[in-house]
Amino acid sequence: MMDVQSKLRLVLGSVKDQASISKAMIYRKDGYLSDIEIAILRATSHDEHPIDDKQLHEILFLVSNSSPSSISIPYLSQKISNRLRKTKNHFVALKMLLLVHRLLRGGDRKFEQGFRKSHLNGHLEILSQHHRRHHHHHLNHNYFLHNYASFIEERMSWFMNQAGKLEPQYDKNTTEIRLRGLPKLQLFLDRVLNCSSVLDIISPSDSLTRAALHNILKETSQVYNNFCDEVPILANSFFDLKDHAVQAQALKLLKKACRQSCELSEFFHKYNRIVGSTSMKLTLKFPTTKIITVDHVLVMEQYVNDNNMGEVSSSISMVDDDKSVIGHEDSEVPEELTIGTSSTTSLFSCKLETQISTEWVLFDD
């Protein structure tokens, strides 16, 4: 039940909304652009109701039908940034972030490109000073606001391809092509996982936070499918990597993949238990694709360690031909651990998992 203080805040917020809308309607110095500002104010009012689809479509319609778009999209971005920066109200701030997220997903390709360009040019600021000041405690709603804003910042570097799927802008400076895709996917998933702690404090009536989590995890399912494709490719080519620095980086990525897979599964199940159980529309299914086990990672780590020891041993005993040969042989991939050298050998085959388990028991002894 709403207390007196909450009711008072809601009434004052409503008065502020009406005053802002009336002011924009009276002055209308920007002509059709003022209609965009009014639509933003209506969509991000001081109440707890989620943004209505009708309000979102109105904003998209006004921007898309205002010519030229090179003016209307930066104008939209600036108005969003100004409202996000000035507000001290949690509901308004969260609605603004929800609006940005939905605009990224709801517009056509031309609008999406223009919106992302506005962000790159500084017209659209997501992480306001308000969010930076209030993110110190991990169990409060301001912390979630900061993490959701960080997620949207990362989401800005992704775009919808022609198939309607999310695709990142990859780092073109990465020399090893097999290490290019996974770091970007893992950064996205890190931003998602940072939002998970809000489930410990979310209330049954908090429809805004529930809507935000639903939007985040809905997109995460798609990114996770790409993640499931990238991890086996890197894992199965691990023993073919000749550069030890690249191999160490690959091992680091695979360790992180193992951890993220478990944490994401826990996040989805917890979300469905707390949020999805209240509404079938909010229930989400987590992809059950097997990624990589701890045993797989341990074998790879042992191989890298043995390789490094073999190199040290070889350099110390260079004067002794026999020892040199032994050092070289030690750096070879053991036959039973040759995971990625054949296209018919899979890291996730049952046979291979049995071998890894047996070998690791021997290591422990």
Give a written overview of the molecule.
- This protein is mainly alpha-helical and 365 residues long.
- It has three domains: 9-142, Serine Threonine Protein Phosphatase 5, Tetratricopeptide repeat (Alpha Horseshoe); 157-291, Methane Monooxygenase Hydroxylase, Chain G, domain 1, CATH 1.20.58.150; 298-364, no CATH class.
- 65% of the residues lie in helices and 2% in strands.
- It is built from 14 helices and two strands; from the N terminus they run ααααααααββαααααα.
- It has helices at 4-27, 32-43, 53-64, 69-86, 90-106, 109-120, 129-133, 141-155, 181-193, 207-236, 244-274, 294-316, 321-330, 350-364, and strands at residues 158-160, 166-168.
- A two-stranded antiparallel ribbon has the order 1-2.
- A hairpin with a 5-residue loop joins strand 1 (158-160) and strand 2.
- Residues 312-365 have low confidence and may be disordered.
